[in-house]
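Protocol step 4 of 6: structure prediction from sequence.
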Amino acid sequence: MRPKASITNRIVAKIIDIIIVVAVAVILPYPLGPLLGFIYSILADGMNHGPFKGQSIGKKIMKLQVVSLKQERMPAGYKDSAFRNAPVGVATFFAIIPIWGWIILALIGLPLMAIEIYLMVRIDTGHRLGDVMGDTEVIEVRGA
């Protein structure tokens, strides 16, 4: 059994991914940039190409991996990633929409993200709402 990922490493990985989402959204023209950022935020944990094995860029840097609990702890795929990132994706989606979306983000998205962090801290297994929805777990990858 692989070790459970530390909450600090998971948060740092998420911050790296958020920086990527924002950079893509700012660099590429509207609505393409924000849309590609949103797609990355939903599907990135399911990347299984080249050096990525159920890892977003942030998780790869922090030596973390998302595994599917329903598929014998194999690296997560795009479907697993979409389910596990749906709660965070709600916030990201509203961030795309100027003004009204930002208000909805503040009212719904930010509290939802706070709940996600709270669950990671309080539940012994470190599962957040997205992990339960996607039937996934984040683990540390040794020697990666």
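Step 5 (inspection) to follow. The chain has one domain: 7-140.
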